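Project channel, design review

CF: Before we commit to the Serratia entomophila constructs, I'd like one complete example in the thread so the newer folks can see what an input/output pair looks like. Taking GntR family transcriptional regulator.
RD: sounds good, go ahead.
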Amino acid sequence: MIGTTIGANAAQHGQSAAYFTEDQDDHIYNSLVKAIVEHRLLPGGKLPEEALAAAFGVSRTGIRRVLQRLAAVQLVTQLPKRGALVAKPGEEEAINVFQTRKMLECANVPQVIAHCGPEHLRAMAAIVEQEQQAHLERDGAAAIRLSAAFHVQLQAIAGNAVLTELVSQLTLRSSLVIALYGAPWQQGCRCHDHRDLLALLQQRKGAALAQQMAHHFDDILANLRFTQSDDDSPDFTRLFAAQEKGAL
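CF: and here is what came back for GntR family transcriptional regulator:
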């Protein structure tokens, strides 16, 4: 999405390929995106500049730049006198996010089928296998990440970089919706749904794949619970400490 590696690279490396570039701002941006997508930073949570600057060892000016970038892709809301918050989509927005994904992803199925080769099928099968393992281990962060990667890689097969970028952005916003309104163990999508979609892709059954994908999104919407809860602000230094050590 914001980075330069959408399209073909996303098809090879999954959703994370869309985020990673090289400078310090990008590193902080990527860290915050990952924490939001994995529900370690929850919708409505405060993102205080001072605490984040201390966690990453940078100035508040640098944090402010990153928060502005996150606001541009609707992962963060910036409010006068209140500062930055993780975006908290309302019920109508939540429904619209998944309805838009349904329209885009189902409409792109014929192009996915037309461009799908053995290397794409192997990549998709690997994601489904990893996602299944994450669910077995109840590794919520991995399950969410792999669920998003399945959808982004599937659409990237068609080679339409613009559409892949849109889907990538919408999967991020979907994560916020599921964090707010999903069932206690609704970590991404149900992995058996993805196995069924992959089977139809392998059989090159385009019409059936589009229909099954539509049902997939309908099921996600049907299982959302439109209630909200407030959470305490996290310890940003502890949250990002392990990641920062690994980057040294």
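RD: helpful, thanks. Residues 132 and 191 are 6 Å apart (CA to CA).
CF: The first helix runs from residue 8 to 13.
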